Fold this sequence. Notes:
Blueprint lengths: L2 E2 L1 E3 L4 E3 L32 H12 L3 H7 L1 E4 L13 H6 L5 E3 L4 H14 L7 E4 L12 H6 L3 H17 L4 E2 L23 H16 L12 E5 L18 H17 L4 E4 L3 E2 L2 E2 L4 H11 L5 E3 L8 H4 L5 H11 L4 E2 L3 H11 L5 H17 L19 H14 L1 E5 L18 E5 L6 H4 L15 H8 L6 E5 L12 H10 L2 E7 L2 H4 L15 H9 L5 E6 L7 H6 L2 E4 L7 H9 L72 E8 L3 E3 H8 L9 E9 L5 E11 L10 E10 L4 E8 L1 H4 L1 E2 L5 E2 L3 E8 L6 E8 L1
Helix pairs in contact: 1-13, 2-12, 2-13, 6-7, 7-8, 11-12, 14-21, 16-21
Amino acid sequence: xxxxxxxxxxxxxxxxxxxxxxxxxxxxxxxxxxxxxxxxxxxxxxxxxxxxxxxxxxxxxxxxxxxxxxxxxxxxxxxxxxxxxxxxxxxxxxxxxxxxxxxxxxxxxxxxxxxxxxxxxxxxxxxxxxxxxxxxxxxxxxxxxxxxxxxxxxxxxxxxxxxxxxxxxxxxxxxxxxxxxxxxxxxxxxxxxxxxxxxxxxxxxxxxxxxxxxxxxxxxxxxxxxxxxxxxxxxxxxxxxxxxxxxxxxxxxxxxxxxxxxxxxxxxxxxxxxxxxxxxxxxxxxxxxxxxxxxxxxxxxxxxxxxxxxxxxxxxxxxxxxxxxxxxxxxxxxxxxxxxxxxxxxxxxxxxxxxxxxxxxxxxxxxxxxxxxxxxxxxxxxxxxxxxxxxxxxxxxxxxxxxxxxxxxxxxxxxxxxxxxxxxxxxxxxxxxxxxxxxxxxxxxxxxxxxxxxxxxxxxxxxxxxxxxxxxxxxxxxxxxxxxxxxxxxxxxxxxxxxxxxxxxxxxxxxxxxxxxxxxxxxxxxxxxxxxxxxxxxxxxxxxxxxxxxxxxxxxxxxxxxxxxxxxxxxxxxxxxxxxxxxxxxxxxxxxxxxxxxxxxxxxxxxxxxxxxxxxxxxxxxxxxxxxxxxxxxxxxxxxxxxxxxxxxxxxxxxxxxxxxxxxxxxxxxxxxxxxxxxxxxxxxxxxxxxxxxxxxxxxxxxxxxxxxxxxxxxxxxxxxxxxxxxxxxxxxxxxxxxxxxxxxxxxxxxxxxxxxxxxxxxxxxxxxxxxxxxxxxxxxxxxxxxxx
Length: 789
């Protein structure tokens, strides 16, 4: 399968691949080239008949009924603290609740929906939302793992399956995708996004939205997507949850905004504002992001919801002296729906009646909310199918979950383990004795990862279960020893683990983080090593000299410097979902050739964080450093550490295979391109060939089939502002037969070559560009071309 990804950033319009796209040079749909001034962000919400219905209903509503549509409540306390607000049934009958979340299942949602549709004055249906992040019942790998696939078609499929299961549960609104660029592994919510890169994050944002919403929101297997958290939540200072973000507008527009815009351009009908302040202004009350950028520049015509309790939290931020001020500031900035604060419900009517707030502001918000409800077809089909059978993890769903997980696993290291002369992995099909050791080897709940929606840990196949099933009719023995708990400080069970390892022909260590308590929201860490005494267990077992494989289950990059120096083979498994064990076992024993690539850089030490490959240059770039002899004199004054190298332990885009890939014959279609041709492309007036076409030959030089993710990076060396030392601008996920060579092509036009200048406009200036193609951000095969005046 050839997957080609293209990025258009003049108006920041992304066109991800589709299976039908025959080649990299296929002409893009011309409708995509309409500027944001020519069309709204979602054509379905702009439908005239739909908007006529909205206006008719809006004109019949009382002020209290309007405010009811703007009020959302959690019933059940699944997300965040339990709400103690009573009287939901009464409020629904009065038309004072527009949305509910954390109510799951047809029976439960239909109960409240009947109250709204049959008993409220205007019969307006409830919009039910839920944190469906990587599956509803069929739990797939966490989003950071999904990003490791570099496969937007796979992400689109995951989102589509998730949408169908959610809709069956009465959920027609999912609080996903999270598209925050995250470059600090200390931040626990890095697990919920696509990692550190703007290009990859933008491509996957579009894929999620398309998977969730499909071609028509009114279809029964479609749900409304919610692009979150707007904006720049992933840059929280020091990686601490809910913390402030302080950055230049240039960085905001160049790095952090594109994935949100990509999701909106894909048609997302809702956006969630963030918890964090941005440059001193809380996101929930920020007119610059919510009105100037989102509404005026991007022409977003959907609905904005706050994050949990964030409107009331404006008081804690110190920008609102009371709930009344908080409500006014949030609504005026552009927040249409108040999630769980109960502030709009209690304050807005008084503000309008006292003349402090115009009712037109209320109307504007309600109009946006009703558009989404009409587009979803809730007025025609408000109820979930009540007679759907109980969810079962069928073989078909398990097969998909397993395939997805297999694509997301990243082979970090595969060295020779003496006395063998070949890399340790894949393992022999029937080794005599396997020692399986570690607290993550048989933990069903942890394999689900954070935000597992309505997933059931009992559906999970752990690594221990998978190995026992694989070898149940074999002479291979599987000796299991937990060794320690995830956060234990006791080595009482080390002896049991050592005894198992001493008997084994190969050792598999399953170590990592607790999904429930160490990753996801509010799980920031100051240390990135293996938690508890797992590092000590790792060192104890490794020093026995047995061939050892380390499988890491986690939701963030960890610091694995000791392991990289001492353990022959390492697999980053993330949290792989319900088929975790089966997927890992298939990789370990060579049934599947690993193909995942890292969407985040892995540090050598936590002091490198935030760490990312596409850093800006410095006037004193560092070369190699001898850590045994720190530099002195003039050699000292460079941008580097004195006790560690700058480089990541494992860089962005990195991932090994059981075969080898060779890149050669990098060619450019032309050595230079005129600025005039690129400007014509920007205006959607096409020159004969307004692209630099980059071609390369990639060969599978090994003896087994394999998938390679070929990646293209560029650098502008003569811009009006600093540009990163290299940036991803294209990738292709390609299957190769043994010995096969394929000719791949990438296209670079205005949108790939332009950058954000000091006037916050995208421009290209005459300059020399460098381009590299390879299997990671460390690609060395390169060429140069010019953009001429």
